[in-house]
Structures are given as C-alpha cells and as structure tokens.
Design a protein that fits this description.
GO biological process, one term: lipid transport
Largest sheet: 11 strands, mixed
Subcellular location: Cell projection, Cilium, Flagellum; Cytoplasm; Membrane
InterPro entries: STARD10_START, START-like_dom_sf, START_lipid-bd_dom, START_lipid_transfer
Protein name: START domain-containing protein 10
Keywords: Acetylation, Cell projection, Cilium, Cytoplasm, Flagellum, Lipid transport, Lipid-binding, Membrane, Phosphoprotein, Transport
Length: 249
C-alpha cells in the first residue's frame, strides 16, 4: 500500500489519489490502488463500515448479492460477493477468504479467492479472482484517518481499454466518495440496527458455522472460463453511474 515503485498516478482530486499498475501489453488492469483522506471520520468507524455486511447492502449500489458463508478463526471468514459491472460487460462474483487485524490506530482487511464446494461458478455471472485485495486504514487522530484500497484482481477476460481508464479515472474515486458518505451516516444507522452487534470486534457474537480449511482450496484464475470482452464498446446506459447522490436509508 505504501510502495511507489511501478505505480502510475492517474487521478488526484479532492483528497483522492488513484494509481494503476498495468502488467500486460494488452492493457488489462491488474493492479489498482486508491487512497482517500477522511478528515472527519474516525478510523474505527471506517473499519466498522467495511465489515458491516447489512449496512453494505444499503450503501453499495453495485452489490447484487453478498453474504458470509462461514468462519475459520476469530479474525477470518469466507464470503460471497457479486457485483454489477459497467455495461456491456458481464457482472462478476467472487468467493474470498478474508482476514482482518486491528493494530492500535490502524486496521488491515485483506482477502484472496478460494473455492468452496457449495458455491461453484454460476452461469449468469463471471467468476473473478481476487489475487490480493484489501484495505489499510491509518488513524490520523481522534476523528481523522486515511484509507488505501489495493486490488489485484483477475476479472477473467481481456478487458477493453475503456474499462481500464474508467476504473482508474471514475469508478474507483466514485466508490471512495460513496464509502465516505456511508461512513458519515453509519453511526446514526447503526444506533437503529442492532447497535451492539459487531462480530468483527467481538467474535463471541458470531453465529457463522465453522468452515474447515480442508474444505477450501485457492482459486486459480487459469481453472476458470476466460471471457473475452476486449471488443465491447461502452454504452450510454451506465447503470446510473452518473449520479453521485446515492441515499443511505
């Protein structure tokens, strides 16, 4: 998250900076890094928002379906996430093993793709592969923090150049702004929705079934269907991405 080597800055505006690392000649986006300064949000609030799956369904307008499958340890679990991609691309989903670690004023959440026998790839979605994806939250005082989002994802397909550009210039900053607004509204929302339930902080609250590590295996990209979307052109119907005023109920 803190390394500059090999990264090219593509966006710097309103406290949000985006870098990309292109690893293939064809222009497929293999790594993206996005950092946002949050001057009026506590690090622990941002950490809660990233963990709270019920709240994510409220503020993350790209989510199609998301749920926790089971837990491995007090700070690791397996989960499912499906999301909308910009038209005309096919929508994606992923099964990940996620782990997290509070470190004083800082927090880390990381994940990578695994196979789970009960959740094989679906015909209506492209199974993507998270090679290494996650967040570094760094506290900057009582009510201030920064967040760095790092993603190395194989979206399974030769992505057209416009997707690479759009991801770094538009989608990543938009997602950060949306997350920021969600953080501002979270304390009030949480007071009305099971305020003391935070299993990511209090593992004894978790009701998830235990998953044995032997049930899982690493999801390698080359074992999945490769969808060539390199020739697709961007459409005007963009799933409402032009609006940045997404409400949180």
């Amino acid at each position: 998250c803190n390394s500059d080597a090999g990264w090219s800055q593509t966006y710097n505006k309103s406290g949000i900076v985006v870098w990309i690392q292109i690893l293939e000649v064809e222009g497929s986006l293999h790594k993206i890094k996005c950092r946002m300064e949050c001057k009026d949000i506590a690090a622990e609030t941002l950490y809660d928002v990233l963990h709270d799956i019920e709240y994510r369904k409220k503020w993350d307008t790209n989510v199609i379906e998301t749920f926790d499958i089971g837990k491995l340890t007090v700070n690791s679990d397996v989960g499912y996430y499906a999301w909308k991609c910009p038209k005309p691309l096919k929508n994606r989903d992923v099964i990940t093993l996620r782990s997290w670690l509070p470190m004083g004023a800082d927090y880390i959440i990381m994940n990578y793709s695994v196979k789970h026998p009960k959740y094989p790839p679906r015909k209506d979605l492209v199974r993507a592969v998270s090679i290494q994806t996650g967040y570094l939250i760094q506290g900057r005082g009582v009510r201030s923090c920064s967040i760095t989002y790092l993603a190395q994802v194989d979206p399974k397909g030769s992505l057209p150049k416009w997707v690479v550009n759009k991801s770094s210039q538009f989608l990543a900053p938009k997602a950060m702004k949306k997350m920021y607004k969600a953080c501002l509204k979270y304390p009030d929302w949480k007071q009305k929705h099971n305020p003391h339930f935070k299993p990511w902080l209090f593992p004894e609250q978790s009701t998830l079934p235990t998953v044995a590590l032997s049930e899982l295996s690493i999801q390698h990209a080359d074992s999945l269907e490769n969808i060539d979307e390199s020739s697709l052109s961007e459409t005007k119907d963009d799933r409402g991405e032009g609006s940045d005023e997404d409400s949180v109920n």
